[in-house]
Amino acid sequence: MGLYPEIEPYDHGMLDVGDGNHIYWETCGNPHGKPAVVLHGGPGSGCSPRPRRYFDPAAYRIVLLDQRGCGRSRPHASAYDTDMSVNTTAHLIADLELLRRELGIERWLVWGASWGSVLGLRYAQTHPSVVSELVLTCVATGSNPEVALLTRGLGKLFPEAFEAFVSELPAAEREGNLAAAYNRLIESPDRAVRERAARAWTDWETAIVPAPPRSEPRYEDPEFRMCFARTVTHYFGNDHFLGEGNEEGVVLRDAPLLKDIPGTLVQGSLDLGNLLGVAWRLQHAWPGSELVVVEEAGHNTGAPGVAEALVAATDKYARR
């Protein structure tokens, strides 16, 4: 079936998670339904109304949130004085636990897209008793080879765009970790340097999309563009804050910890993360998971076939 009808939240709020941060959250669907939490991508994208429609509103209590620094959460990463040192994977996982307890939820299904799949996997690996199932799409695991692919490896497929991308960096910074180099520019005290770097980063993000739609109107919003570029490069440039061993992939290494959690991975065949076989490797390392590959779909949760597969997964788990 297609997406469920559009719905509005029946409750929302701002949760004080410490360090001066307040995260926006909302709940939709059935207040007495099966709890599910939606983890958006980026990092730094913020939540949107669309994921509400991947769940049967009569069956699920759907929780959405804007992760630290983005969307309606405050302080916003687009502001230069926002402290990014308290925006790490460990902080986001702690925020999820605070929100779960605040809402009186014992266990919930975790739905994640792109960066949200990394966060969801790590959350489930560190808090397996509170995760009933995982539904993940545009799958990533946050390993250093994945970052290297997205920032340098794809330069062989998009050479013109890659030349423009690296030309924005000082010559001495073009051979190392490109995300970290861009993050240093985005943290510059010079506003013009920050803004030019954020634009160059989002231009590259747009250039490496291999399937329609190839445009990202949200990148034309200066506040969103700065928040997104600053947050992505902050995480990409720091091993996704996953700790020692991320060169080989901490999340993939710890996939066996998910053995008691059922999961569905929905992946487009044209998602360029597939060049490393991440979704396939994860599914084979995770007992009890299934992989659904959608032909001719890219890194896009709304692509034909992807949306339907996501709805089928949540429908299946609604009956558990």
Query: What coarse outline follows from CA principal-axis ratios?
Result: globular
Helical residues, percent: 25-40%
Question: pLDDT below 50 for ≥5 consecutive residues: which ranges?
Answer: none
Number of E strands: 8
What is the oligomeric state here?
single chain
Strand % is: 15-25%
What's the layout of helices and strands?
Elements: E1 11-18, E2 21-29, E3 34-39, E4 60-65, H1 89-102, E5 108-113, H2 115-126, E6 131-137, H3 144-151, H4 159-167, H5 178-186, H6 191-207, H7 222-236, H8 250-253, E7 263-268, H9 278-285, E8 289-294, H10 306-318
Parallel strand pairs: 3-4, 3-5, 5-6, 6-7, 7-8
Antiparallel strand pairs: 1-2, 2-4
Helix pairs in contact: 4-6, 5-6, 5-7, 6-7
